[in-house]
Amino acid sequence: MTGPGSAAAGALEALAGRGQSLAVAESLTGGLVAGALTAVPGASRVVRGAVTAYATEVKRDVLGVDGALLAARGAVDAEVARQMASGARRVLGADWGISTTGVAGPEPQDGQPVGTVFVAVEGPDGAGSVRRLALDGDRDRIRRDTIDAVLALLLSELTEKSAPQDTEQHGGNGCLQP
Fold this sequence. Notes:
The protein is α/β, with parallel strands linked by helices. The protein has one domain (4-177): Maf protein (Alpha-Beta Complex), CATH 3.90.950.20. The chain has helices at residues 4-18, 32-38, 56-61, 67-73, 78-92, 139-160, and strands spanning 22-26, 47-52, 96-102, 116-122, 128-134, 165-172, 175-177. Helix 1 runs parallel beside helix 6. The model is unreliable at 162-178 (pLDDT under 50).
């Protein structure tokens, strides 16, 4: 089985096995990541909650994203994604935080073209990473691919114990490619 359900289940199982919790901060996905996670039976053992920070002010005022950073770069930015994940961890009292921010369309935003997305994972002891995605497709496809990407990144961080890193991936017809 592949897709967000299997990545969500795998990540939740790995977190439960560690006795750790998860918080979500979402922008362009508007709660769909939290929905994918909480669709998994037993998710309440791990998921602390989610913040749908669609407005820039919510990113700043609720999640604690640096206002100067938002003013200078806009909400579609790698560091904004990292700070959103960190803010979710802090606000919701979780061991791990994940986030999504980007442009699902139909119009560009913050000088970024449609399909530009950043997903981030932040965990304890400096674990985590940020990934830039260049996704193709319509609004629904971009949002679905973003959900897949952030859950896959979380699962990778949990199972591969990789060092903090920034990477970039490009989508071809909505598919993520290394």
